[in-house]
Amino acid sequence: MDYDAVVVGAGPNGLTTAARLAQLGARVCVIEAGPTVGGGARSAALISSGVRHDICSAVHPLGAISPAFAALDLAHHGLTWLAPPLALAHALGGDRAAVLDRDPTALPTLGPDAARWERTFRRLDHLFDGVLETALAPVLRVPPHPVAAAHFGARGVLSATAFGARFAGDAAPALFAGIAAHTGVPLETWLTSAPALMLVMAARRGGWPVARGGSQSIADALASVIIEHGGTIECDRRVASLDELPKARAVLLDVSARQLADIAGARLPARYVRRLLAFRHGVGSFKVDYILSEAVPWLADACRRAGTVHVGGAMLDVAAAEHTVAEGSIAEQPFVLVGQPTLVDASRAPGGEHVLWAYCHVPQGRDLVPHHDEILGFLEARIEQYAPGFRDTIEARHVMGPTELEAHNPNLHGGDIGIGSAQGLQLLFRPMRRVDPYRTPADGIYLCSAATPPGGGVHGMCGWNAAGSALRHTLQDLG
Description:
Layout: E1 3-8, H1 12-23, E2 28-31, E3 43-44, E4 53-54, H2 67-71, E5 81-82, E6 86-93, E7 96-100, H3 114-126, H4 128-135, H5 146-156, H6 160-164, H7 171-180, H8 193-206, E8 210-211, H9 216-228, E9 232-234, E10 248-253, H10 257-264, H11 270-277, E11 284-292, H12 301-304, E12 306-311, H13 315-326, E13 336-339, E14 354-362, H14 372-386, E15 394-400, H15 402-408, E16 445-447, H16 461-473
Parallel strand pairs: 1-2, 1-10, 2-9, 6-12, 10-16
Antiparallel strand pairs: 3-4, 5-8, 6-7, 11-14, 11-15, 12-13, 13-14
Helix pairs in contact: 1-9, 1-16, 4-5, 5-8, 7-8, 7-13, 10-11
């Protein structure tokens, strides 16, 4: 054998897989189709030389508390987390905004629901470590912390709108709805509270930070671990078949379910391949990166101090926008997520400009290139509603619709940045219901992408868990 393990795909999960195995002494080779490592955690000068934008993932509430990243000691390899003054602000109109942050002084923005919000999450705070260990691993096992799992599950099974309806005012429901809307799943769907609960808990533990220098810093730190332990990384090499790979005891693929079927289908049972092809993709994304002459003129002061801003109004407005997209239509008043990284990281724009990104969800599977100007108009009008004069600050913009996002990263089918829908049971069982979802029926072949539990987000846990599966079944001598 040329290697103990070959990893296909150098996204955060593929790199985490390789880093864990290399740390244990495995001979590891990573093969990446793109010109650089990173996948969904790449940064580049999209508009102007020297001004860095995060191409896909940009804010990392789960990355900052990831057990995988902690075990790999990425700080030693140059990764620094930067927390903005406020983690998240949800614009409500005028000078009002609901705030999510570690600092309890943010609670008054929730008005009459501040006390109930705090009671709800204080108990989860005490159970957080158990909840995190349970949520970041496959479902079909005895939970290591049954009390924490039961307490979290009783709330996570609810729809986001049902959870929000428990509050009396408008601020807390809107804040929770915006957080739940990150998944792109209709908010009236059961289990949509679970991802939102995790993101709220993460904010209360580690905030919603950005990586200094851009998300590429995460990928570069992971690559540094691999190189330090003797691994190799090859970029600009696209893999169409397992037959193209060097000989290895284990092959781990950081690819989508559909790509696994394409690359490894000849070695997989037909029934397994059919189930891979039945894996549902989530809604698409329409993303705009900006260079601004000055900071966004938000009406609400909290929005000026938050690293992430949600623009969508009341809970029912957010729910209506996401429902419209799920039904296959473009939302004229979309729910918009906005990131302000230069609030804490001036290195992104050394010339003193401001970097901003914004995205909204769009229908999956439609050719939206002819509608780019229309969607851009809807998105910017939505921001302008809460920040009059925003358009006057725009110096340049770079637009990526679903087609461009998929061209950048083939895992993002139809602009699905979650690498698969998180709706219903597919939130829990990815890519299908198996005790070990990382191990395929073919000997020595594993799936290590966000198409496995715990799903999307730059946290590396899909790759960490897949490496663990390979250590149990193929690379026992290393474990």
